[in-house]
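step: validate -> pass
step: tokenize input -> pass
step: predict -> running
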Amino acid sequence: MNILEAKQISIVEYLKQLGYQPTKSKCGQYWFKSPFRSERTASFKVDNNKNEWYDFGVADGGDIILLGKYLFNTSSVSEVLSILSNQVPCADSIRIKPSRSEERRVGKECKR
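step: predict -> pass
step: emit ->
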């Protein structure tokens, strides 16, 4: 798996595969309890439209590669890619599948 392939993995679906469930979601924003520590209130947000995460507890966020660095306690991108490749050998089921009609529907419902 290379970086471009890894970035096509849905962070929301990947976290679900790891056993984390969102506590709430609205307009493509999913809130999870942080996978980095134990907590009672969800402070880990995933923007499913951008496929990016942000953890308010560590004040950091990014793509699935940076998430993997935190989860696997490594600074090596190649190690993250190797682990992701082993954990998600058939990543098609959790890949981002953009849908124009979904984008339009969500955009209309969530505009401020």
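step: describe -> The longest helix spans residues 77-87.
step: cleanup -> pass
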